[in-house]
Design a protein that fits this description.
alpha/beta, 17 helices
Length: about 450
């Protein structure tokens, strides 16, 4: 017999600190998906969880209910000869790792059906970077998506309406009710979309530092542990540094260009390479494509060096509507800003600190990101040729180059960088890139 609950009673139970049953959670989440639970009730429930938390079983039940609120991908009929794998990042500035990771893992024998999001606030979105590629279809129909995964080995697209629909509505309410930074809700939101992909293995990149959602290391550790504990598939979380811009660029077309340089071996920033190498090797280990982590590192570097990873990226772009010769002629397709100029330090010395969040907001101010979800993006703007913490800079050594549409925007962006990249005569060590692994 079907049990009927009252949404307000479920909210009351959680408000009073009671443990919710799986049936109560299922009822409430289905109500979100079917619009029988109001926005006010979602807000009240989110706030109750924010203050009362959830125990381990509640978190598992809550996440699984979110997964089951829509379609769950099934790859069993595709006769794939490798594991279904993916990676998710909690977001950062200059974080173009997904663009490199998916084709590398595909070149190593994995299949990566990556569902990604757009940027909001100071963090860039993976889909916005692909939107900088003319013709690339980030929202293909299910048939094209599945076929691309099968034939190429990877496809990076946006969330479909039928994938974890309860999360989409739940997050929209959390975003306007100051309940985003809640570990049980973050965990369910991240995992519901990823587990709906039908994965065999998942690696989480949990970032910490000035440009991260989890600035505090203890918070990052708590989230990493929660994700590993709740996930129903083989999952590892890797806590990584986000106290400086990742790679050389921040801005959509600029990051695609850096990705092409990276995959073709033209230019590889060392910190970015360490992150890509570590995350990819861990994913290969999760998928049992290698016997140990070191073997994974060797395999990752092999497919970059022999060109197989670059070939996978090119095939994915082409299969999803982008140009066939993007790798050979990126300048032909990627938009360029009207003004490109260096930003020099006001004193010589060593780069000691970056306020990465504010640098990300500098990209937004240039038009390369969103304050609200309806904002239009200028794909050409941003920063390139970034210095890094620990670098020695002279008065004629650029901290970065600004790519802007107007002189006013360029000047404002210059002021942001000069204010938020600290230079002093005291040399500091570069921050540790890989901080900790959390394994189930």
């Amino acid at each position: 017999m079907k049990v009927t609950f009252l949404s307000q009673e479920i909210i009351k139970n959680k408000r009073d600190g009671k443990v919710l049953s799986q049936a109560e959670i299922d009822f409430f989440i289905q109500g979100i998906a079917k619009n029988t639970v109001s926005e006010g009730q979602i807000a009240a429930f989110a706030m109750a969880v924010f203050f009362q938390g959830m125990n381990a079983q509640e978190r598992i039940d809550f996440t699984q209910s979110m997964v089951n609120s829509g379609d769950v991908m099934d790859w069993s009929d595709m006769n794939l000869n490798g594991p279904i794998l993916d990676k998710h990042s909690t977001g950062g500035v200059g974080d173009k790792i997904s663009l490199m990771l998916a084709p590398i893992v595909a070149a190593c024998g994995g299949y990566v059906p990556m569902i990604s999001g757009r940027g909001l606030g100071h963090t860039g979105g993976t889909l916005d970077k692909f939107d900088a590629i003319p013709g690339y279809n980030a929202t293909p129909d299910n048939s094209l998506f599945r076929q691309t995964v099968k034939e190429v080995g990877c496809a990076i697209i946006g969330q479909t309406a039928n994938l974890a629909p309860a999360d989409k509505r739940f997050y929209a309410t959390r975003d306007i009710t100051a309940t985003v930074d809640c570990i049980p809700l973050i965990t369910a939101s991240i995992l519901s979309k990823k587990l709906a992909e039908g994965l065999d293995g998942l690696v989480m990149d949990v970032k910490t530092g000035s440009g991260a959602f989890m600035e505090n290391l203890d918070d990052a550790k708590e989230l990493a542990q929660a994700i590993v504990d709740v996930s129903s598939v083989n999952t590892t979380a890797i806590i990584t540094d986000m106290s400086q811009v990742i790679g050389y660029t921040a801005g959509n077309a600029l990051e695609v260009s850096e990705t092409i340089d990276y995959l073709t071996g033209k230019r590889q920033e060392p910190v970015l390479h360490q992150l890509v190498e570590t995350l990819c090797a861990q994913i290969l280990l999760q998928g049992k494509l290698v016997n140990n982590f070191d073997e994974g590192v060797i395999q990752v570097n092999k497919v970059i060096k022999n060109g197989q990873a670059a070939e996978k990226f090119a095939k994915m772009v082409s299969a999803l509507g982008g140009p066939n010769d993007l790798m050979e002629n990126p300048n032909k397709y990627l938009a360029k800003a009207k003004i490109i100029q260096p930003i020099y330090p006001i004193q010589e010395g060593f780069v000691t600190e970056m306020d990465t969040r504010m640098i990300g907001m500098g990209v937004v101010e240039l038009g390369g990101g969103r304050r609200v979800s309806t904002d239009k993006i200028n794909y050409s703007v941003g920063f390139s040729h970034f210095c890094h913490v620990g670098d020695k800079v002279e008065l004629d050594t650029p901290l970065a180059f600004v790519h802007a549409n107007t002189h006013e925007q360029a000047e404002a962006a210059q002021n942001v960088l000069l204010k938020h990249i600290k230079v002093s005569n005291k040399q500091v060590k570069a921050p540790q890139t890989i901080i900790q692994k959390v394994i189930k």
